[in-house]
Amino acid sequence: MGEIVKSLKDGHYLYKFSADILMLVRRNAHIVAEAADDALVFALNLSSIFLSGSFLEATLNEQIAMAARNGTQTIKPTPEFWVTLNGMQKNLTVTDKWNLIASTRGGQQWDGAREPFQSHDTLITLRNELVHFKGRYAADDTPPTRRLQPLLNKFRTIRDFKLEGMNIDPWLVSLVKSKKLGLWIDSTIFALHSQVEELLLGISLTQDRKAIEEMIRHNRYGFPPKSVEGKRRNSKSKRA
């Protein structure tokens, strides 16, 4: 279940669906990492692609709604600004929302040429291609959008015997059944989530906070392996 935030202004509450999306994408990645069934990997990766495409917009909409009900007159630029922006949510693009929030909070403008923005834009391109999938006859197996080719080059999987017999390798199947794609989706969303305060809201993270985020980022699917020395000691104690 997502987080719940109570308004200081009138006691109403906000349900943060973005937390649910993050949790589900992380859960899918955890299962995919251990799965032995291509069909399960394919299904969970599809689920994560569709879910993750909603994560950033849900996060931004929540930030706008919380600011609109802040309950103080000191919020910048003005309380009226956030109330107005809250009413315009449906008419703005995700990039517009990010840039408007960042410009008032001391954050950074959206820059698709660098991380974590670049990977998120690639993920949204993949999501859009699948949501608006176009049936097409093709002489080759390349994705319809150039932006997805590096993703396919990186995560292409081996085709099964049926596709081998037909001498075809559909890019969608080859990409989406990749375990590494599932982990990349999770990593992309988690990287954005962990940097929202710094990049969007202009809040400088403490060294301790950065250290914790790094620990989470590099050890998400299990416990650290035992050291060689530790293994040797265990072996000696067993022999004794």
| Biggest beta sheet summary | 2 strands, antiparallel
Order of helices and strands: EEHHHHHHHHHHH
- How many distinct domains? 1
- Mean pLDDT level: 85
Report the sheet-strand fraction.
under 5%
Cα radius of gyration in angstroms: 22 Å
Estimated structural class? mainly alpha
Query: What's the oligomerization state?
Result: single chain
Overall 3D shape: elongated
User: How do the strands of the widest beta sheet line up side by side?
Assistant: 1-2
Question: How many E-type strands?
Answer: 2
Main features:
240 residues; mainly alpha; two-stranded antiparallel sheet; 11 helices; 3% strand; disordered C terminus
Task: Give your account of this protein's structure.
It contains eleven helices and two strands. A hairpin with a 6-residue loop joins β1 (3-6) and β2 (13-16). It has helices at 17-34, 38-68, 79-87, 94-105, 117-131, 149-155, 161-166, 171-176, 179-199, 207-218, 228-239; strands spanning 3-6, 13-16. The model is unreliable at 220-238 (pLDDT under 50). α1 packs antiparallel against α2 and α2 crosses α5 (117-131). The chain has a two-stranded antiparallel sheet with strand order 1-2.
